[in-house]
Amino acid sequence: MKNLIVGQSGGPTAVINSSLYGVIQEAFLHTDEIENVYGMINGIEGFLKGKYTDLRAEMPPETLQALRITPGAYLGSCRYKLPEDLNDTVYPELFNRFRELNIGYFFYIGGNDSMDTVSKLSRYATEHREEIRIIGIPKTIDNDLINTDHTPGFGSAAKYVAASVCEIGIDASVYDTKSVTIVEIMGRHAGWLTAAGVLARKFKGDNPVLIYLPETDFDQEQFIADVQKAFQSKNNLVVCVSEGIHDKTGKFICEYENEAGTDTFGHKMLTGCGKYLENLVKSRLNVKVRSVELNVNQRCSAFAQSLTDSREAAKAGSFGVTAALKGETGKMVSFIRDNSVSYDISCGLVDVDEVCNKEKCVPLSWITGNGTDISQEFIDYALPLIQGNPAIPMKSGLPNYAYRK
Amino acid sequence: MKNLIVGQSGGPTAVINSSLYGVIQEAFLHTDEIENVYGMINGIEGFLKGKYTDLRAEMPPETLQALRITPGAYLGSCRYKLPEDLNDTVYPELFNRFRELNIGYFFYIGGNDSMDTVSKLSRYATEHREEIRIIGIPKTIDNDLINTDHTPGFGSAAKYVAASVCEIGIDASVYDTKSVTIVEIMGRHAGWLTAAGVLARKFKGDNPVLIYLPETDFDQEQFIADVQKAFQSKNNLVVCVSEGIHDKTGKFICEYENEAGTDTFGHKMLTGCGKYLENLVKSRLNVKVRSVELNVNQRCSAFAQSLTDSREAAKAGSFGVTAALKGETGKMVSFIRDNSVSYDISCGLVDVDEVCNKEKCVPLSWITGNGTDISQEFIDYALPLIQGNPAIPMKSGLPNYAYRK
């Protein structure tokens, strides 16, 4: 009988631990095929240093259940890129460790870069006839993986963004004076998360009135004109911008601010495009301006976790385990949407070599209003993903998350 | 029979509308004593421009119920200070409007400045024998009003801060590399909300490892030494700072950054102390640093609304109405804590003249570790205030808040 090992990699999400839950609980069911269940600490990088844990020993049922609602990466994560050259010494080093632990099943929960790891390991395993099945479980708030309807982690982040933008709109509207509030949202190259700001609108004309994604070029003069036009019908404007908006030469808008000056310590100032646009509006229009960077909470908050997202993340994990047990390797679990009656997701498998290092952007046809708005198609696509609130067990008034000390 | 008018003033909170709910539903019960129930739009400032609404007409039961969980200020708010001179023409102007609407009961939900309005109006009314009873309902996330155990709005903001700091700690700890994350929290003069960061700790030694309030002086060299010491036992540090921290000369730490340079448009750069400390740590220690400004969401989010806070806010509103009906005027509703068996709050009345324009700070004896930590007394004080989660009605996956178009 072989053992299983699972790791997490890349940035945290609200539901990466839900996928971990899916892998573990499915593995625990197959006591006839899987002996030990190990977790890599800090992904492949920690594993190379000999860091792993026996999950059956450290995971009582209540901790396993708490994983379902715990944001972040319970096992710790890493940003470690395996060498392109499969003849590098790191590969035999890794597979020696796998052999020592009698690993037959390897699961890696992550985004683009993590799928690159899955691709390299599975190609190495094939070349060297290593008896280990290697499966990737997708996760990223960016929703930029190809060959899957969406990625686990996006739904909860989108819900956090939509709910936060809605509340920022409420906050911005309490005074009767003209104001612009710029909300900077994560997404360097793909605007999926920023587009989710549109879900905050409760009625036609409601905030956010302007939404800018990195899929199109951003023109500063046009932006000022857009804001002035929006003031014709509304006093308090909320504007969503992706951190990765750029001009037509490809220069990021945040780079304009960062060129401006140095901080107290003589270093280049590093701020985002939200701060830059705040200063731009302040210098050009005589109105109150504020910028809000949603920052890390958009990827690590379980306040606004989507039950749909959390369930799908767990499903992806358990589907990966059953696929590996059937002999699959070198695959990433994907989501296939069935909209024929109502929203339904089934899991599939795609070749991980095709997925890694590619990026799925928001279709240009879903970006409307000359790059200032988001179409109904996006709303129809995203709305099912933010549905439902998981019951969060509380302790002393705060969520009772699972953690390793 | 007289009419009632209610207004909201100052910055939004998660539960200011809960107090509005309390006032309205109590007023609706006394059909034998109160005829119409009006709402000022944008507080006293909007009312002076003739802006008010008939709440019985615009408030169906479902909207009234939705008020209980809706953050922000449903009626709109203002920052309007009445003249010190009670002989100013604005006073007869206001009282003429009250007389025109046959107002017998005036309620103002707000913080320090709003209590100043309540004080001035009630003194004017007494001097001029105006037959109108004037009551203040406290609210502020800052918790800085005197003569009350705490203020409605603080509990929910404290819960938001504690839950966010906890999640930021989870996010910061996923990688194995040394890092400092600085969380900047609202509170210019009083550190109550920043102190609530301590509630995020799940075990001894957990984040946040350092907490700095504006009640004590902040020394930059000592801060660097504190961080270095904390690294001896932990790799990923979360530090909470109040926006109002200052050095021993009284100079705000954020002013250091703002002196640094100008933005792209030649204006003084305006950032907070979190950004400054991020740059300070970066320049002195060779570690990853990030700063997170919790920003407006800490005062306007219902994600982490405290049921205790929401219920108490409503209770303060309804208590104010019954007090006015009994003949009280010139008072602010206060909270009196009974800890004899378990946490219990009853409402009282305090002289509004004594409350306004004063500030309650965190007791120095509750600040420990040479100004870097918070004592158990604070935890015992604050923990009951963040208990319970109200059921939030959802629509399309997002909270279904009450709103005026």
Automatic annotation (TrEMBL), chains A, B:
The record marks 113 as: Important for catalytic activity and substrate specificity. Substrate binds at residues 140-142, 186-188, 243. Non-allosteric. The keyword Kinase applies. Its main location: cytoplasm. One of its GO terms (cellular component) is cytoplasm. Keywords: Cytoplasm, Glycolysis, Kinase, Magnesium, Metal-binding, Transferase. The active site is at residue 142. It is found in: Cytoplasm. Its cofactor is Mg(2+). Its EC number is 2.7.1.90. GO terms for molecular function: 6-phosphofructokinase activity; diphosphate-fructose-6-phosphate 1-phosphotransferase activity; metal ion binding. Homodimer. Catalyzes the phosphorylation of D-fructose 6-phosphate, the first committing step of glycolysis. Uses inorganic phosphate (PPi) as phosphoryl donor instead of ATP like common ATP-dependent phosphofructokinases (ATP-PFKs), which renders the reaction reversible, and can thus function both in glycolysis and gluconeogenesis. Consistently, PPi-PFK can replace the enzymes of both the forward (ATP-PFK) and reverse (fructose-bisphosphatase (FBPase)) reactions. This is Pyrophosphate--fructose 6-phosphate 1-phosphotransferase. The gene is pfp.
